Amino acid sequence: MATNPLISRRGLFFGAAGVAAAGLLAACGDDKSGGGTGSSATSAPAGGSFPAEVAHQFGTTSVEQAPKSVVSLGWADADALLALGVIPVGILDWFQAWPVGVGPWAQDKLGGAKPTVLKGPEINYEQVATLRPDLVTFTKSDNDKAKWEQLEKLAPTLSGPAGSQPYGTTLKDQTMLIAEALGRKAEGEALVASSDKALADAKAANPGFDGKSVVVAAAFSGQYGAYTRGDGRVQFMEALGFKNSQKIEDLKPASFYAEISKERVNLLDADLTVVFGLGAGDVLKKDAVLNGIPSAKAKRLLIIDDPDLVNAFSTNSVLSTPYTIEKFVPMVKDALA
């Protein structure tokens, strides 16, 4: 089957959410100016130690005083900002799924504020400039230095940590980079510790997960993309005790996923196989090829069709993780029972 490169990229990136989101946006009227007015300044609690300096893959960013106008461009950076009590004036909505720019797990943190929602994943620099930021967060992205340099012309800009693969910034690094830029390192550490504890508690409550192999894949355009170590979805599963399938790792793809054709669908077999099938869940449940792999025959295939759950799982942020634990872990437990 011919594959549309754009759809393929988005399908893998978002677990196919971007395709499904197009319809949702249409239903919402697709406000091209964004979901909010952008008129509200950043809301931030008092405190913070300044000047703050943050080292990242492209150098060191200095923040001289508490920022008042923060624009969130990195994937799920808004979650980290909101967890620290900072409401961005602009949010790049990577999933194009929510009029307020963040998922349901983070929406109460907005407190009724309506940041300008920038339609992603590409960056509209002119629109960012109109928000007059004094800090831009760009911690989880494709690690494109040219983009970071362009943003630096607008305001001090964070990037991901040195050595991270594209879109591979961990929950810990994302939270700490942003907390340090806000002069609030201790609060960042507390958030990371809380997330680690929640994952450790989930792992301890489910000893049957430990050491089990897993494949997490997105279904799109007649094929699959299986995520590799370093991807946030795999990071989440590893925190629960799973090991990413060695068959997938041995493919050594250049990016954060390995393309799997239907002819090679048996590569998706593992102790647990998770497939994102947004908008196609019923089709996948009837797919004789997919359901012919051993894990499917043994009823250890999970097809996730809930867009909020898929996006929470994919986001892997300090706010989405509790949501994913609550919604997803029971499904895994049932599949392995």
From TrEMBL:
PROSITE patterns linked to this entry: FE_B12_PBP, TAT
Main location per the UniProt record: other
A biological-process GO annotation: iron coordination entity transport
Keyword Transport belongs to the record: yes
Alphabetized InterPro entries for the sequence: ABC_transptr_periplasmic_BD, Bact_iron-sidero_bind, TAT_signal
Keywords: Signal, Transport
Protein location: Cell envelope
Domain spans labelled Fe/B12 periplasmic-binding: 69-336
Family membership: Belongs to the bacterial solute-binding protein 8 family.
Protein name in the entry: Fe/B12 periplasmic-binding domain-containing protein
